[in-house]
């Protein structure tokens, strides 16, 4: 406490309770409310009111006990609320409650995941493409907002492939287009499927093959595939061999005939079902109506020659014919003996 005495009408020199003469006190500590004889009143608003005026007020910093020192406002780039206590350290001046997505000793930079100018309270959230960004490299640049990109990816947000690359959705960076320098119109390709832009009479994903619906060596000669429209699953033949892709039950270089083991006419090629006949015979044998079936079987025997004619015209080999005849013999055995 600093007191003031009155003697012979003259003020007595104040004595500080800290035990030091007034000449050693700071200007702030020597400031007294002369209307009070019993209490020290710190008139500087930057000093914490207290018994010794030795602490700076909230959101100010300094050391009032040091001669000629003052308490200064905390320098936080206007990124603290001065009305909230504890927003900065009263001794060091370090800002403790930074606002507007800022951080640092003086709230001088945007916090991770944000970028912009912290001094103008304009830190905004980074927006990085989830496919093109290298998450292991941290957040975006705090000043420019540039996201860390995977290999061959570009853009502020890492949302595009470099020229000559594609497939950003792989999550591993963009892949080279690999366009053929002679067959393509440039180095770029479709960003979704990697298809290069081909010159006339060129085709394939990288434009190194013959054009669509043709096959061969484009540097020598390309030949039309001419796949049968009824028997082909795709009108594009193999670009190297010319073999067309056939539907089930259809064969041939151009998919223009029924396959082995089938009968009928293109495109209605049906497989033989001799095993079906055997199964039906077993069912009839079990019901005890052999005579009815023997009559049917006799009719079948009378038509064997007709069956052979059909087989002969159905592109079936001699081995297939023998298999059918064996099944017919098995059918007869089932009917006569009941043994499978």
Give keywords.
24 strands, disordered N terminus, Laminin, single chain, two-stranded antiparallel ribbon, alpha+beta, 340 residues
Task: Explain what you see.
- There is one protein chain.
- The protein is an alpha+beta fold.
- Among the domains are: 1-73, no CATH class; 225-270, Laminin (Ribbon); 272-337, no CATH class.
- It is 18% helix and 18% strand.
- It has five helices and 24 strands.
- The protein has helices at residues 27-30, 274-287, 290-302, 304-312, 318-337, and strands at residues 6-7, 10-11, 60-61, 72-73, 102-103, 109-110, 114-115, 124-125, 153-154, 160-161, 165-166, 175-176, 184-189, 196-198, 202-203, 209-210, 214-217, 221-224, 232-234, 245-246, 250-251, 257-258, 262-265, 268-271.
- A two-stranded antiparallel sheet has the order 1-2. Strands 3-4 form a two-stranded antiparallel ribbon. It has a two-stranded antiparallel sheet with strand order 5-6.
- Helix 2 (274-287) runs parallel beside helix 5 (318-337).
- The relative contact order is 0.04.
Strand content: 15-25%
Strand segment tally: 24
Binned, the helix content reads: 10-25%
* Main sheet attributes: strand count, strand direction, barrel closure: 2 strands, antiparallel
Order of helices and strands: EEHEEEEEEEEEEEEEEEEEEEEEEHHHH
Distance from N terminus to C terminus (CA atoms, Å) equals 122 Å
Structure classification? alpha+beta
What do the pLDDT scores average to? 79
Work out the helix count: 5
Strand order of the main beta sheet, please? 1-2
- The low-confidence parts are 1-23, 25-41
Shape descriptor reads: elongated
Radius of gyration from the alpha-carbon trace, in angstroms: 48 Å
Disulfide bonds: 98-107, 149-158, 227-244, 246-255
Domain Laminin EGF-like: 74-125, 126-181, 226-271
Subcellular location: Secreted, Extracellular space, Extracellular matrix, Basement membrane
Pfam families: EGF_laminin
């Amino acid at each position: 406490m600093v007191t003031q005495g009155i003697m012979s009408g003259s003020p007595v020199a104040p004595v500080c309770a800290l035990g030091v003469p007034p000449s050693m006190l700071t200007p702030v500590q020597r400031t007294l409310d002369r209307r009070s004889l019993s209490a020290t009143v710190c008139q500087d608003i930057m000093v914490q009111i207290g018994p010794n005026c030795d602490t700076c007020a909230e959101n100010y910093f300094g050391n009032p006990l040091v001669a000629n020192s003052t308490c200064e406002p905390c320098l936080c780039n206007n990124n603290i609320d001065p009305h909230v206590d504890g927003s900065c350290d009263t001794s060091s001046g370090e800002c403790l409650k930074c606002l507007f997505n800022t951080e640092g000793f003086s709230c001088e930079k945007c916090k991770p995941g944000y970028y912009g100018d912290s001094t103008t309270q304009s830190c905004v959230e980074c927006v990085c493409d989830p496919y093109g960004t290298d998450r292991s490299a941290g957040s975006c640049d705090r000043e420019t907002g540039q996201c860390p990109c995977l290999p061959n990816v570009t853009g502020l947000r890492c949302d595009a492939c470099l020229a000559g690359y594609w497939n950003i959705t792989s999550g591993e960076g963009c892949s080279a287009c690999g366009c053929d320098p002679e067959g393509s119109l440039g180095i770029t390709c479709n960003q979704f499927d990697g298809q290069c832009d081909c010159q006339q009479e060129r085709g394939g994903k990288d434009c190194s093959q013959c054009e669509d619906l043709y096959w061969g060596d484009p540097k020598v000669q390309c030949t039309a595939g001419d796949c049968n429209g009824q028997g082909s699953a795709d009108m594009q033949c193999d670009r190297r061999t010319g073999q067309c892709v056939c539907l089930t039950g259809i064969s041939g270089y151009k998919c223009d005939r029924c396959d082995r083991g089938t009968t009928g006419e293109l495109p209605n090629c049906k497989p033989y079902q001799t095993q079906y006949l055997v199964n039906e015979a077993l069912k009839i044998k079990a019901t005890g109506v052999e005579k009815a079936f023997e009559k049917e079987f006799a009719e079948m025997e009378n038509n064997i020659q007709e069956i052979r004619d059909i087989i002969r015209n159905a592109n079936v080999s001699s081995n297939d014919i023998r298999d059918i005849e064996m099944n017919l013999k098995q059918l007869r055995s089932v009917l006569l003996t009941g043994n499978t």
